[in-house]
Amino acid sequence: MLTGLFIILLIIILIATIVYGKRLIKVEKIDAVFGNPERSKGGYHWIIAGSCSILLLWFYFSWDVARSFFPNSANELCQVAKVRDSLVSIKYVFPIEQKTLKSSDFIKRENRNIELLNNQIKQSSIANKDKDKLIFLLVETQSLIKILSDEKYLNPEIKNKVLGVANQIDSLSKNIQNKNYPQFDSLSSEEKIAIKKQGFWGETGAEVPFYPNTKFGLKFDAASKELNKIVEQFFLIKNNSEVFEKKSKELDSVIENYRDTLAESQEVETQFAREVSKIYGRVTRSNIFPANVLDPVEQSVVRFEEVQKKEQGSLKIIDTLLFPGGTVVASGQTCSEQGSGRWLPKPTDTLKEFLHLLDPNQGYKNVPLFWYEMMGINKVVDFILPDWIADLVPGKYPVHNNEGKVISNFKSNVLDIVTGNFELFSIPVPSGHIWDSFLRVFLGLTLGILCGVPLGLFMGLSRFAAGYFDPLIELYRPVPPLAWAPLIITVFGIDNSGKIFLLFIVSFAIMVISARAGASGTQLSKIHAAHSLGASHWQILKEVIFPNSLPEILTGIRVAIGVCWGTLVAAEFLAGTTGIGFVENVARKYMQYEVIWITIFVMGLLGLLFDIGMRKIINKTIPWRGKG
Amino acid sequence: MSDLVSENLNMVFTSPKGETVHAIQNLNFVLKKGELLTVLGPSGCGKTTLLNITAGFLRPTSGKITLGGKEINGPGLERGMVFQQGALFEWLTVADNVNFGLRMKKEDPKKIAEKVEEWLEIVGLQGFGNTPTYQLSGGMQQRIALARCLINDPDLILMDEPLGALDALTREKMQSLVLKIWKETGKTIVLITHSVEEALLLGQKLYVMAPRPGRLHKEYQLPFAKMGLSTDLRQIKNEKEFVKKREEILTMIWNMEEEIMGKDI
Q1: ipTM confidence
Q2: Which residues of chain B have a CB within 8 Å of the CB of A536?
Q3: Contact across the interface for A624 and B55, Cβ inside 8 Å
Q4: Which CATH architecture best describes the domain A432-621?
Q5: CA A174 to CA A621: how far, in whole Å?
Q6: pLDDT tens-digit profile of A133-189?
Q7: Which SS3 state, helix, strand or coil, does residue A220 take?
Q8: What is the CATH number of the domain that holds B63?
Q9: Contact assignment for B57 to A536 by CB distance below 8 Å
Q10: What span, in angstroms and rounded, lies between the C-alpha atoms of A569 and A576?
Q11: Where are the domains of chain A?
């Protein structure tokens, strides 16, 4: 209901923005000719229109439109799918959806197999006696096909049975057109209980409620049950005339006898005999009929299909219009969404799942997405202060006295502090998948900038540095970052340090190259000016070269953020226990499409935030770029 | 006395291909303190090289230039330079550009602020202290460059075609400003220019240089700079003497250019 209102609202907004945009174009100034870049400015209403379009497409292709406006449609489609499912095996026999009659297809294939085997036997180097025998067996097998295909040998009962099946299907076709169908109680008592227990569409992921909820569905459910029985009967009809039975039994014993006579050394002959036996087996099991015997059933199935399609009525239209890229499919005891509705989760479900994940008590794999945890200040102190501070304190660590007690002194007190062996208060520390990923990028990037920028500036100014460090940078920079991952994970482990190091080497190369470009792009006259104004080397570096390289450096950082972000997610895919990439990888294993899409969305959003932040910083710090 | 003296100055450049270019050959001159020298010549005559050597950015191949008896071997505060495009630090405000030299010397901030105010007023930019330099016009930028150089109180001011990139109107105003500063501060100034008119107007002394190899071709002592201190510049340009000199030098440079072109063909 709410979703439906939202969808209608989206459509209204979309139309409104388009109308507004159209009107704006009409009143635009005449001098705004085509090709004037000014014309691309100020299109905020088009941003809204674009966002609405994306959301609507998402609602549409995830079948959320269908669900919010026709909540029962999936259940009804499930009943229709049951009918389709019941008919699948019988339709397969006839050229209804297949191109050829199944029997013809089989005969064509086996004839070719026989011919191939025949040629192989003729060309082989086995004794003529065996050759003759094997070819005789093949010819006999082929004659079985002839018997099966000839209406003259057909058991007269079969025609009656076939007609019986056809009549049953026809009467079902007639019955389902009746408004009161099914007149009988088609539901078992277990099913009646299950109907009450089953949830609504979307309650259990991609699965659709199986038992009929509506009168319309009940009709198709009953029809499918009847069809199942009819189809069962149909497949019990076997083409086993007396002639065929006799002949095949004879041939069977002949083949077996011949196989028994073969010695173990006659490997080729044994192999051929096995092939012949296989073909014999396939032919006897084939249940092929003379070409036109089954026609009544085929015609009745086609008629039934027409009737049931007509009976679907408006559901057919809903299926084509509101279930794009697939439909509901029944198989065995379940009905499921197959197509875009399966792998594209519905926005409503995604939002619900996202709120669920955001709940810090839930999170994903016992780790919240983005929350905080209380961390003792002692742990923070332990992390920040190195332990060797205690060693610097004069004196010795205390030893135990006669009473078996250790009395602490100043030195041991200092050791307690630096190792965090005390309890005071706790402070909130951010934690969770998103924060972990963010922290890794931040640390890797910061390290890369701190090391890369000075080296890059140095390389831009000194022939020695440019030459000496060039091979190092240029050799490892073109390597795709992920190619380092297996090695780095082996050395540093799957925890933070490995990923931070990976991101460090990625951002380092980018920062070196951008800082170098910035430094070597400094105008000589500016350096000259600084010299003649009395600046020292350090001052020139700090006051002229560094600010002059800032545009390049900031652009480098922007690029590095993008690359680091991509590398990190992939690295988290490979190994780790937290992080946004880890979440996606686990969700992939459990086919949690909602979670996968949430991670994709979060990553996109964070990337966008990083980029907007960097753009803001760039505009603030280097407004003079390109204007010098 | 802090005179600028050039003794047997030679500058030879060698290109990576091994060709040598004699940019300056046996240049000798003496510029007394407080003189305004303009240097004129066709392109490739070594004017900029001369300036760069004087500023200390280049070392001569042989010979030397001395300022007040001290040989020049590196950039120094006593020689200020004004560049063609200003070469301002566009990431700094006007005030920070002007006080750059003082900040590098780590002078007292209060003193610095006072001096900046003073100099911005002299170059006619009072009130622009906090404006980013990239927002200013070419003429204003050149004024900042002048102030930035002069605030350090150099003995010698070197100007490398400082007014070359300005429009005619701004140029005339700036020429007056240069003369005014020259008069008020009494600095020694070396100004390189392409414009014959400018060289005549501003130069108390005028050197015409000839190319290949770069050498001193002719030397003039001119009265116009002194006149310009009191008279309107446009009026001077119409004086008979001025027109005669201008035509004479123009012909001279034309001939030089033709000689080069002839050689090329």
Answers
A1: 0.91
A2: 104
A3: no
A4: Orthogonal Bundle (1.10)
A5: 80
A6: 999 999 999 999 999 888 888 888 899 999 999 999 999 999 999 888 888 888 888
A7: helix
A8: 3.40.50
A9: no
A10: 11
A11: 2-61, 67-344, 373-430, 432-621
